[in-house]
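Translate structure to sequence.
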């Protein structure tokens, strides 16, 4: 059979896979490589993330391009996250052959409508409805400069999303996002393809834990707002031991936690510590005020933790309702905590998860689907 080659334009260095967007990119690369696809990775470098020789194990070629930051990109109707990821050198590399091109996120779509790519198979990989995501960041941000940036960027992203009409197919991570894009781009091919991730089998431990856990990158405004809500409205009104764990908790979270004897903040746990915290908790509590995208920490928790308590926004478009306990108000969440405090997580519960997750969220299954969508056109 002829070799299958694919260009991937990544918005950031996808290794190490330690936050939402790059987790999907890295494990997609790994899964496609294992299926024999020849990958040509193009990375727009982002400050603070080093080049990753590990990616060369999965890709035929890996090329890096500097991000165009500062005033050169700020004064434009094109969103900053998009225009700052332009590179004439990258475009030259893409034009050396006629392989399909996968654009990871709206961030990487600067060249999606370039006439030089006419006739190529162009795939858009969605991870969020970006203008909605940025508008929600605007609502929860406290810094006035950042707040203004998020609002302006949200407007620009809404106007810019029309570029997606040039994609031959859109691969979206949630059914809710699929429904939105189907209404916005009537007649376009839009396929639901859940995020790729690190898990292969459910490893949730039987038994009970003696604490409840909220985890995430807490310096992100969305997660800071969720942690603040849980401490003030939920954790502070119970006697249960509560842990907030994640990257770079802001001072406001420490100050809130200090008011309550039962609330502990664990900053910047390493991978092994975080895995232990998720596995050993009686329940992981995951709430969000962003309904778009697929929250990868939800998948990770279902594969590795015991009980999983969520609000409806966390589940949006996932069909994972049967595997979670749902509470939306502080009163509902407190009641759930009290109810499951002494319950035992069983092998049967883990087996139910395995059945559902392997059917819909297997990297092997979804890599096969992706290959069919891209190459059997």
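Result:
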């Amino acid at each position: 059979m002829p070799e299958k080659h694919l260009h991937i334009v990544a918005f950031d260095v996808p290794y190490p896979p330690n936050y939402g967007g790059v987790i999907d990119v890295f494990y997609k690369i790994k899964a496609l490589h294992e299926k024999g696809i020849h990958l040509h990775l193009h990375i727009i470098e982002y400050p603070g993330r080093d080049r990753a020789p590990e990616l060369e194990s999965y890709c035929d070629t890996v090329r890096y391009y500097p991000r165009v930051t500062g005033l050169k990109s700020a004064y434009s109707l094109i969103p900053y996250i998009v225009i700052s990821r332009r590179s004439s050198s990258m475009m030259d590399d893409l034009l050396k052959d006629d392989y399909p091109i996968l654009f990871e996120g709206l961030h990487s779509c600067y060249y999606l409508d370039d006439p030089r790519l006419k006739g190529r198979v162009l795939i858009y990989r969605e991870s969020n409805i970006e203008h909605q995501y940025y508008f929600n960041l605007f609502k929860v941000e406290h810094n006035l400069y950042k707040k203004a940036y998020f609002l302006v960027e949200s407007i620009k992203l809404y106007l810019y999303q029309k570029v997606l009409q040039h994609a031959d197919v859109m691969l979206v991570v949630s059914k809710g996002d699929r429904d939105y894009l189907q209404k916005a781009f009537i007649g376009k091919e839009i396929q639901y393809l859940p995020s790729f991730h690190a898990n292969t089998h459910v490893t949730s431990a039987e038994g009970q834990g003696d604490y409840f856990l909220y985890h995430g990158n807490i310096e992100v405004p969305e997660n800071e707002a969720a942690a603040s809500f849980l401490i003030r409205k939920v954790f502070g009104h119970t006697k249960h031991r509560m842990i907030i764990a994640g990257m770079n908790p802001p001072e406001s979270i420490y100050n809130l936690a200090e008011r309550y004897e039962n609330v502990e903040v664990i900053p910047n746990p390493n991978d092994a510590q975080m895995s232990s915290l998720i596995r050993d908790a009686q329940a992981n509590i995951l709430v969000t005020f962003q309904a778009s995208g697929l929250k990868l920490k939800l998948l990770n928790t279902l594969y590795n933790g015991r009980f999983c308590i969520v609000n409806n926004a966390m589940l949006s478009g996932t069909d994972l309702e049967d595997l979670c306990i749902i509470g939306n108000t502080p009163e509902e969440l407190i009641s759930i905590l009290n109810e499951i405090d002494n319950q035992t997580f069983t092998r049967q519960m883990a087996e139910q998860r395995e059945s559902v997750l392997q059917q819909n969220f297997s990297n092997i299954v979804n890599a096969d689907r992706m290959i069919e969508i891209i190459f059997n056109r």
